[in-house]
């Protein structure tokens, strides 16, 4: 067990190191220089040169990379050219906002998808299965920017019971809770169908297993067969898929956040990318990778707990 | 009367005679006379009109709404807050602002020395008045007495001088340098060399007394060259007067002279300004103004307006126009402006060396059609000389119509009977820009010129807009009150913003001549020559002039749309 974690931790560190180098080099070689981005398009060349010297940007790239890694390790994420402040002052707040959005969505997606997936998969081709499958395929295939506009048109502009944007500002008399409904709904609609399909497929597979037939033949009630025999095994495969949704929810919410003007991590990354705010892009990318690797480790660990056969390998 | 006027400026009596003879219109009289230092009240008196009424007429004639803007507030609602959808950028360094919206929040708390109104007339603001010498080389700026900063200090000449020097300090990085370089600064050798071994040049004040303190309320600018547009320059968006004790930094609770104090800023999210006591002007009617950042997605702003999370938008895009029109609680405001974009060709490259090729590119364009296709027909068709019909010295030439045969002939004369291939750079947003480029590219095809379009994100475009690496590109230019100002900024040889690297001694000398002429009638004659040079030889294809528009809740009174989107929130009020 200990060696498992040690190995995984080493793998995590190595990944982060490689990624950080790649990110630094890529942002280093994008056109345009940092001083120009700080000063904006209308500064004179002389002004740019003065700032370049001041910021020490004329030193070799490797020196600056090592310095950057050192700073990251001490918790200094650099200075944002868009937000004109330490990245630390902005990124945690934005992550917090996204985390609120992501956790609510996650809390809705997981039970709903398991419920619908199991209901759909336990009797393949039943009318229930057909309707759930149709629902999942339709919602998943509508992109977020489209469903965002649909839902806003219906609920904000049409009926007028929900606010059209979610700026997390109480202005206009809309509570924060009411502002979260539409973005969460869009994320749930988009993501739910996919997970439902995964759970359904796994459930169908489990239901064809001999031990389920044995259980049925033993005279167990259908309810007990599902709850006591099928469910646990059916959850092994979708477990990883469900954990991967954390990745999507935290780092993939760019579209939802832009449509609803939600001040979260995704919108911050979008704006940083559009205006080439290198420090924010680097810190954000590192964080995204961290989330991906950590969820993978948690996934592997959970997989082990659920499936005794690989526990000791 | 005449003597009194003569004392303020020798040209004023002539101007008055011209007004009476109907040679200059009232608006032009107001603009020029206030420019020459006549106080606004006196100017309006001479022109035989009432200042307030004039402004109101202006706004109601230029906004699509009629009754709403002129009615006054009856009762203020319980929550007396107006929310505006606008980007909330970092505001810590006003002198280096790149965009107008950067200045909109700070402007509520700090003032400019002058103010160009929605009618394109520049008036004194923190200044009581200004006086220009006959040769336009000496400008005396006289401050209003008794203006108090929010910390209780009185606004004095020293504060203003500190600000002027701060903007012009090369280490600060302010774009005011670009405007004032010609008449207040001079180049000097810094003693350092760049990579190619050429000496690095810096800028400094051209003379020790360039900015001179006369007394506690009077500042004198002793200019190197004649300059007509000093008051307009003082309204350039970074030229906000800050308290010297804060050393150019600005933020929450900064000291200001404005009607509001900033109480909250969260970049990318929200900024709040609250009304303060002790403001020198008319007290604001609303308790506070909140600026809400809705990002760049035009749909988000429309949704926020629809669900009344905000009362109005800083700026609306053409993609929002139809939606705004449909909202019953929204007034649509529109104003014609000198905002435009030009496809500029750099004659330093072989492709664009021949003036005949450049003119052929202009002749290929049906500018009226481009205006329809790219900007919903809102605005007016371009005439390829970058002087706008609303500029006072605009001279009407024969409209440069599309002439495919003429263009083909010019290309053939230039040795390119089969046309050529080239690339154009343009920005991705706002969306009318790539649309205009696409429309023009289709028209250029008709003369055999095949243009490949390179669409860049805005930030990347602004990296290259004035570089030689973009021989052909489509750049937006904002509204400026005078034609000479635009031409001087963009097309004079070797100025920092000369993105087309255009260099024509004939043009330069004619422009200098125009800049030294006060008489608008006379200046217009010279302007006609300049416009002709631009059409025959110039480096640009200019498809359109934009009318800009935005939407505000009908409950907001006193809002007027400004050609450069400047917001003056102390004029606003809110009805229940």
TrEMBL record, chain A:
Residues spanning the membrane: 9-27, 99-122, 134-162, 174-196, 236-265, 285-306
Family that this chain belongs to: Belongs to the binding-protein-dependent transport system permease family.
Database matches in SUPFAM superfamilies: MetI-like
CDD domains in alphabetical order: TM_PBP2
Pfam families cross-referenced by the UniProt entry: BPD_transp_1, BPD_transp_1_N
Matching Gene3D superfamilies: MetI-like
Main location: membrane
GO cellular component terms, A-Z: plasma membrane
Protein name: Peptide ABC transporter permease
Compartments where found: Cell membrane
PROSITE patterns named in the record: ABC_TM1
Membrane topology: Multi-pass membrane protein
One GO BP annotation of this record: transmembrane transport
Keywords: Cell membrane, Membrane, Transmembrane, Transmembrane helix, Transport
InterPro entries: BPD_transp_1_N, MetI-like, MetI-like_sf
Automatic annotation (TrEMBL), chain B:
Taxonomic superkingdom: Bacteria
Keywords: Signal, Transport
Any one biological process term the GO annotation gives: peptide transport
Main location: periplasm
Region (Disordered): 52-74
Keyword Transport: yes
Domain Solute-binding protein family: 123-480
Keyword Translocase found: no
Pfam families found in the cross-reference section: SBP_bac_5
GO cellular component, one term: ATP-binding cassette (ABC) transporter complex
Amino acid composition bias (Low complexity), ranges on this chain: 57-74
Gene Ontology terms for molecular function: peptide transmembrane transporter activity
InterPro entries, per database record: Peptide/Ni-bd, SBP_5, SBP_5_dom
Subcellular location: Periplasm
UniProt record similarity statement: Belongs to the bacterial solute-binding protein 5 family.
Stated name of the protein: Diguanylate cyclase
Source organism of this protein record: Hypericibacter adhaerens
């Amino acid at each position: 067990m200990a060696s498992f974690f040690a190995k995984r931790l080493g793998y995590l560190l190595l990944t982060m190191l490689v990624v950080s180098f790649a990110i630094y080099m890529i942002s280093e070689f994008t056109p345009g220089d940092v001083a120009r981005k700080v000063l904006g398009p209308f500064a004179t060349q002389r002004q740019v040169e003065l700032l370049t010297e001041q910021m020490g940007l004329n030193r070799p790239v490797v020196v600056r990379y090592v310095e950057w890694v050192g700073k990251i390790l001490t918790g200094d994420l650099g200075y944002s050219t868009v937000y004109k402040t330490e990245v630390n002052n902005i990124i945690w707040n934005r992550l917090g906002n996204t985390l609120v959005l992501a956790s609510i969505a996650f809390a809705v997606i997981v039970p709903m998808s398991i419920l619908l997936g199991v209901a759909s998969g336990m009797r393949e081709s039943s009318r229930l299965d057909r309707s759930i499958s149709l629902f999942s395929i339709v919602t998943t295939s509508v992109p977020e920017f489209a469903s965002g506009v649909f839902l806003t048109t219906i609920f904000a502009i049409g009926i007028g019971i929900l606010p059209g944007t979610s700026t997390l500002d109480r202005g206009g008399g809309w509570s924060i809770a009411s502002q979260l409904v539409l973005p969460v709904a869009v994320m749930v609609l988009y993501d739910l169908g996919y997970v439902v399909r995964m759970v359904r497929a796994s459930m169908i597979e489990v239901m064809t297993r001999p031990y389920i037939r044995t259980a049925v033949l033993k005279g167990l009630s259908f309810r007990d067969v599902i709850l006591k025999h099928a469910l646990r095994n059916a959850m092994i495969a979708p477990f990883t898929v469900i954990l991967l949704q954390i990745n999507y929810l935290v780092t993939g919410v760019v579209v939802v956040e832009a449509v609803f003007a939600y001040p979260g991590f995704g919108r911050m990354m979008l704006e940083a990318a559009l205006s080439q705010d290198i420090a924010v892009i680097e810190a954000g990318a590192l964080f995204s990778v961290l989330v991906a690797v950590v969820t993978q480790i948690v996934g592997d660990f959970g997989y082990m707990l659920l499936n005794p056969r690989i526990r000791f390998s | 009367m005449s003597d009194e006027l003569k004392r303020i400026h020798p040209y004023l009596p002539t101007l008055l005679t011209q007004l009476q003879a109907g040679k200059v219109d009232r608006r032009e009289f107001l603009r020029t006379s206030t420019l020459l230092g006549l106080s606004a009240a006196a100017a309006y008196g001479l022109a035989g009109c009432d200042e307030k009424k004039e402004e109101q007429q202006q706004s109601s004639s230029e906004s699509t709404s009629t009754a709403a803007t002129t009615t006054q507030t009856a009762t203020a609602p319980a929550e007396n807050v107006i929310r505006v959808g606008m980007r909330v950028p970092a505001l810590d360094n006003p002198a280096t602002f790149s965009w107008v919206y950067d200045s909109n929040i700070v402007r509520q708390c700090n003032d400019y020395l002058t103010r160009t109104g929605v009618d394109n007339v520049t008036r004194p603001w923190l200044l009581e008045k200004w006086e220009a010498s006959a040769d336009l080389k000496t400008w005396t700026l006289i401050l209003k007495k008794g203006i108090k900063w929010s910390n209780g200090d009185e606004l004095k000449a020293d504060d203003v001088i500190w600000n002027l020097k701060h903007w012009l300090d090369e280490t600060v990085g302010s774009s005011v340098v670009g405007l004032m370089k010609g008449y207040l600064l001079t180049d000097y050798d810094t003693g350092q060399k760049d990579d190619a071994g050429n000496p690095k040049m810096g800028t400094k004040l051209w003379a020790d007394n360039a900015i001179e303190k006369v007394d506690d309320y009077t500042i004198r600018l002793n200019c190197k060259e004649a300059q007509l547009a000093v008051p307009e320059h003082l309204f350039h968006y970074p030229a906000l007067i800050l308290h010297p004790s804060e050393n150019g930094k600005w933020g929450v609770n900064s000291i200001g002279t404005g009607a509001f104090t900033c109480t909250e800023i969260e970049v990318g999210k929200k900024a709040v300004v609250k009304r303060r006591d002790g403001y020198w002007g008319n007290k604001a009617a609303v308790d506070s103004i909140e600026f809400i950042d809705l990002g760049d997605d035009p749909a988000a702003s429309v949704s926020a307006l629809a669900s009344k999370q905000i009362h109005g938008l800083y700026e609306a895009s053409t993609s929002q126009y139809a939606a705004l029109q449909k909202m019953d609680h929204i007034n649509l405001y529109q104003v014609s402006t000198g905002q435009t974009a030009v496809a500029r060709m750099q004659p330093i490259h072989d492709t664009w060396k021949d003036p005949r090729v450049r003119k052929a590119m202009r002749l290929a364009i049906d500018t009226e059609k481009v205006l329809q296709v790219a900007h919903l027909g809102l605005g007016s068709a371009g005439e390829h000389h970058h002087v706008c019909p609303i500029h006072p010295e605009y001279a009407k030439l024969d409209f440069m119509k599309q002439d495919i045969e003429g263009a083909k002939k010019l290309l053939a004369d230039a040795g390119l009977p089969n046309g050529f291939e080239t690339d154009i750079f343009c920005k991705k947003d706002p969306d009318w820009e790539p649309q205009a480029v696409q429309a023009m590219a289709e028209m250029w095809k008709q003369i055999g010129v095949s243009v490949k379009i390179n669409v860049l994100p805005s930030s990347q475009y602004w990296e290259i807009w004035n570089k030689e690496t973009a021989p052909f590109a489509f750049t937006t230019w904002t509204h400026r009150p005078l034609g000479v100002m635009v031409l001087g900024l963009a097309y004079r040889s070797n100025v920092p913003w000369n993105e087309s690297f255009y260099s024509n001694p004939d043009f330069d000398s004619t422009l200098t001549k125009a800049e030294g002429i006060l008489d608008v009638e006379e200046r217009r004659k010279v302007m006609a020559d300049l416009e002709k040079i631009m059409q025959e030889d110039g480096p640009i294809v200019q498809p359109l002039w934009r009318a800009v528009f935005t939407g505000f809740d009908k409950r907001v009174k006193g809002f007027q749309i400004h050609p450069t989107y400047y917001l003056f929130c102390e004029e606003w009020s809110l009805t229940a």
